[in-house]
Amino acid sequence: DTAVSQTPKYLVTQMGNDKSIKCEQNLGHDTMYWYKQDSKKFLKIMFSYNNKELIINETVPNRFSPKSPDKAHLNLHINSLELGDSAVYFCASSRTSGDRREQYFGPGTRLTVT
Amino acid sequence: RKEVEQDPGPFNVPEGATVAFNCTYSNSASQSFFWYRQDCRKEPKLLMSVYSSGNEDGRFTAQLNRASQYISLLIRDSKLSDSATYLCVVNWSRGNEKLTFGTGTRLTIIP
């Protein structure tokens, strides 16, 4: 069973376009995250939402706008795409209560901006 | 100084060998610690949490030294399937689950 899923898996688009990535989790977690992994493989958090409320926003350009319609979904919309936005974007989810707070990652969306 | 620093690697070790990875973190208030593994072109997957008393899961042993702000991972009897990048991960706080990842150490097990 898929725990954290993302669509699309691959996204190739031109500079200046607007695109969205979707994420869903069926683990019953209350917090979801977006991470960016760049070409040097460094993984860095961008946003997190707890019960649909934004709690982490890591100095990401405001061209990136996350939206959480409910606890199980977190989408990422990117306006005016730039070459530097090319990366793999991972969604993750976790609990924020109790002892087991590990984060579980989706399969990633490989974004290429040309 | 990086927030989470790992051995640079790469590590190329023969099958059956024991290999150890080290990791240091800069924030003494860090609350929880993990090792994740990431296969090529895949997502990070939790390998194990790291507890203060140290913990073992089969061939894998994790240790935490809060005084030295140091985490280690030991893999015994390494298998070809252990080839991956191992990520040291630290969480600064509880309730605001912001994971900080090390840059990872690439391990290749050689037949």
Using only C-alpha atoms, the radius of gyration of chain B works out to: 13 Å
Can you count the helices of chain B?
A: 0
**Helix-strand pattern of chain A, N to C?**
EEEEEEEEEEE
Radius of gyration of chain A: 13 Å
Structural summary, described in words:
The complex is a heterodimer of chains A (114) and B (111). Chain A is mostly beta strands and 114 residues long. Chain A is built from no helices and eleven strands. Chain A has strands at 4-7, 10-13, 19-25, 31-37, 43-50, 53-57, 64-70, 73-78, 87-94, 104-105, 109-113. In chain A, strands 2, 4, 5, 6, 9, 10 and 11 form a seven-stranded mixed β-sheet that branches. Helices cover 0% and strands 54% of the residues of chain B. The chains are: A mainly beta (114), B mainly beta (111). Chain A binds chain B through residues 31, 33, 40-45, 48, 55-56, 90, 94, 96, 101-108, and chain B through 32, 34, 42-46, 49, 85, 87, 91, 94-101, 103-104.
Outline:
The complex is a heterodimer of chains A (114) and B (111). Chain A is mainly β. Chain A has strands at 4-7, 10-13, 19-25, 31-37, 43-50, 53-57, 64-70, 73-78, 87-94, 104-105, 109-113.
What brief labels describe this structure?
heterodimer; A: 114 residues; mainly beta; seven-stranded mixed sheet; globular; B: 111 residues; six-stranded mixed sheet; five-stranded antiparallel sheet
Outline the secondary-structure elements.
The complex is a heterodimer of chains A (114) and B (111).
Chain A: E1 4-7, E2 10-13, E3 19-25, E4 31-37, E5 43-50, E6 53-57, E7 64-70, E8 73-78, E9 87-94, E10 104-105, E11 109-113
Parallel strand pairs in A: 2-11
Antiparallel strand pairs in A: 1-3, 3-8, 4-5, 4-9, 5-6, 7-8, 9-10, 9-11
Chain B: E1 4-6, E2 11-14, E3 19-25, E4 32-38, E5 44-50, E6 55-57, E7 60-65, E8 70-75, E9 84-91, E10 99-101, E11 105-110
Parallel strand pairs in B: 2-11
Antiparallel strand pairs in B: 1-3, 3-8, 4-5, 4-9, 6-7, 7-8, 9-10, 9-11
